[in-house]
Amino acid sequence: MFRNLKFVFAVLVVAASCFAQQKAAQQKPPAHAAKPAAEAPAPVLPSEDTVNSFMRYSFGYDSSVTWRILEIKPAEAQGLAEVSVLLSNPSGQQTSRFYVTPDGKHAILGEVIPFGSQPFAELRQKLVKEIKGPSRGPAGAPALLVEFSDLQCPHCKAIQPTLEKLLADEPNVRLVFQNFPLPGHDWAAKAAAFADCVGRSSPDAFWKFIAGTYDAQANINAGNADEQLSSIADAAGAKSADVAACAAKPDTTARVEASVALGRDVGVNSTPTLFLNGRKIGSMEQVPYDVLKKLVEFAAKGN
Questions:
Q1: Given this model, what pLDDT does residue 204 score?
Q2: Are residues 102 and 44 in contact, defined by beta-carbon separation less than 8 angstroms?
Q3: What's the predicted TM-score (pTM) here?
Q4: Which of 37, 71, 114, 266 is deepest in the core (most CB within 10 A)?
């Protein structure tokens, strides 16, 4: 798979100030009062032809690299356009994102992160409102950890022991699993559908199914996925015939797609991606366990 060669772990310390709310005076504002700011115009989105031409000039030197445009939309950062592309080469695939400036002449690589006195609050509120996946840990735990994962992704498998240790060490964490099958994986969407149906039948069976699928990951392929996933569902305590029938239904596909859409809305473009009280952790494999534990303990204090 494409992987970042460098990992930068930046800690932003923001001093929060408390302001007393004041009631607006019930009188006509003075003539010199500032007028409300006009709503910013929507950004001009680049065309697919322009993006494809940009990609050709950027990667055309390497015939092994191909790409597909996934989305062109206004970015959360006002005035910028956000472009998502799926890059592929013989070693794998990765979704990449860049931002185009209002003049259409510059692209910004990297990640736009939340800023403010409570930078992660808005994302946390959105996740609390829209997550629907199975969960472990106390329902009212002060630290909410949301995992967007792909059951075919080896990096998602690799972080599972760390998550298990974290849940064992930290009683104030609630973990929520959200399906995010990547488009380049040939059996991930089917596994996500099976997982969704197992989770709807039994939360306990769901976590066993997830663990079993990761354990069998190397033995599953597009040709045997139905058989393998059904066997794992049975071993987890679910009825495989019922699960397979459920997985084939359109409403199951819709639930998986809704989970993927939520992930994209909050900035997920690779797996695994986790959010701790709204704080994005995109490279958990590279975060030392003691740092992760400190982050959880800090979040559990209401941060």
A1: 93
A2: yes
A3: 0.78
A4: 266
107-109 and 92-100 as β-strands: parallel, antiparallel, unpaired?
Answer: antiparallel
Three-state DSSP class for residue 158: helix
**pLDDT tens-digit profile of 2-42?**
443 233 223 222 222 222 233 333 344 444 545 555 566 77
| Domain extent at residue 54 | 48-109
Indicate which CATH number applies to the domain containing 103: 3.10.450
Do 152 and 280 fall into the same domain? Answer: yes
Tracing tokens 């392929």 back to the chain, one arrives at: 221
**DSSP code for 302:** T
User: Do 187 and 85 belong to one domain?
Assistant: no
What count of Cα atoms within 13 Å lies in the side-chain half-sphere of residue 70? 21
Tell me how far apart the alpha carbons of residues 246 and 197 are, in angstroms, rounded to a whole number: 6
Place of tokens 């302001």: 19
Tokens 């400190």 locate to 294
Last residue of a domain, one of 71, 89, 109: 109
Per-residue pLDDT band for 237 (boundaries 50, 70, 90) equals: very high
Statement to judge: residues 148 and 224 lie in one domain: yes
